[in-house]
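ugh ok fine here u go
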Amino acid sequence: MATASSDSALAPSQATAARVKTVRWALACCVLLLAGGTLLPKWFTFLLTMAAANGLVSLGIVVLMRGGVVSFGQGLVFAAGGYSAALVFNKWGFHDLLGLALTGGVAASLVAVPFAPLLSRYRGIFFAMLTLALSMVAYGLLMKLEVLGGSDGFNLGRPSLLGWTLPDERVGYILYSVTVVVAALMALLARIYFDSTRGLLTLAMRENELRVEYLGGSVRHAMAINFALAAFCGGLGGALAALALGHIEPNFSFWTTSGEFVFVAILGGWQSVVAVFVASAILELVRSFSSSYFPNTWQLALGIFLLVVIRFLPNGIGALWIKGRAR
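structure:
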């Protein structure tokens, strides 16, 4: 009895220590990125801002990948978050950066929740194609609706931060800082969720759904929750991307945009949260430099890079430090 009680007391303490270590590591990375941003040129901070915003969308795909499905329609929630933030900015006059980002995440979740019970029934290519179809339906509607700017979209102005008007010379860095902090917070919450009981249930679903059902878990319920969480991440990233660009358009929901998010999720792998943002930064760097020096072949460079990663790191670049930590 004493041995059993000591073991049961040890497990929570180890879990708490692991969470504290994760929080410290996230804070250290966040501080390092914020400090480094003051030394980087403006074009590079903008690139990292877009990488962090897009990484949030791919983080939602990773949430689904851990359950054994991949969404090819993440552009739907990306556009929902961006358009919601832009409309609130222009129509209601609400300009707070953090509030607009949260608005995008909540709006995307509200758009996705009605479809969650349907999509939770499907797996594999059926799930992927259904999500892609929803994204393309949204793209068609956005192209036709003149009230939303039609095919050209519309612009939005400069946001404020907690009632403070952003100065011209610092607006890029402040947008970068807020995006990095939000991305770090979401990465931390995702790591905690992955290590929780429901997160481990999702991982078990990837291996054997029937066994999860026999043990009393609801696979469809867990899949629906993961879809809603993925939508929130996508809407959050869409709102931050629209605010950084100062423009929103239907291409946010186009299938190539969704494909880029899947590209990042596969490149990073489903085992590591940090790898998703590293992969998103790699994508932005390769696209930026390839389009500058090889404007007609940058997609080829991305394709070759992805093939190399799949060949030598089938579990994504996150497997590099996951394997090292295991050893």
